[in-house]
Structure formats: structure tokens, C-alpha cells
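Can't paste images in this forum, so I'm doing it all in text. The chain is below; anyone willing to post the predicted C-alpha cells underneath?
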Amino acid sequence: MSETRFQRANFVVANIEAALPFYRDVLGLRLDFVKDSEADSYSYPVFEIPRDRPLRFAVLSTESQLRVLALTEVPGPLERVPPPRRAAIVLETPNIDEVVAGARKLGLHVYDEERLLTHDGRVGREVGIVDLDDNLVVIYYIPAQS
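Text version of the structure:
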């Protein structure tokens, strides 16, 4: 069996331009491109989006990883998914305080910071942030000396 390769995560958002201040400016991801989706896009059936809704998507990268996140735009208000949350992306960043401050400045919900204890005994910090479209991003950092 061949090895599975992780390509990217994808979040559905109501407006790419409204989502970018968090993903690009606060988290520091680089916007690679924004593109209109094709009428036969696979996103329609897998995200259960009515085919009469126009779709666009944005693809973002980190400094060291290409195209790790896509934002699929379904214009208009999105219904909140009832709890419990079913998915999150988890990002490592040494700039937790800056990210939290930036998220709060955008009016995003920021969970209380928690102490992170890894399976091998390292200690770090973790914080959950909910974007404008109710998608969960968990950031963490484990200092090298931990």
C-alpha cells in the first residue's frame, strides 16, 4: 500500500474577504490564489451545497508548507453547526500572544488558554479560536526546553 499524503484542510466560509484578516493577517498564512469554482465542482456534493450557489475558493500556504488550507466560499450567512464541534485545524505558532490579541481585535471567540501536556511529557500552551464562520482553529506552542 502506498503512503497517504496530507494535502490540505478546508473550511467553508461565507465570505473569503471577511475570513482573510484572520487567516492571512493574524495567523500569517500566505494567500496563494482565489478562484471561482467550476459548475461541476466536487465541493457541491461533498459539502452538500445546493448547485445554484456560486462557489469560490482561496488557497493559503505557510512559509514552509504549500497550499495547506483552502477556504471554500458559500456566499451568505452560514448556519451554525450544533455542538459538539466536529473538526478543527491545529497550528503550531511561537506567537500565541500576538495571535490571540489579533483574534480578539477581530471580535473572534477566543477560549481560555490551557496548559498543554504532551504524551511524552513536554509542556506548552494551547488556545482555541473560533473564526467568523464557526470554524475552530487551535493554536499551540511547546518551547524547545520543555
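The longest strand covers residues 123-130. The chain is about 15% helix and 35% strand.
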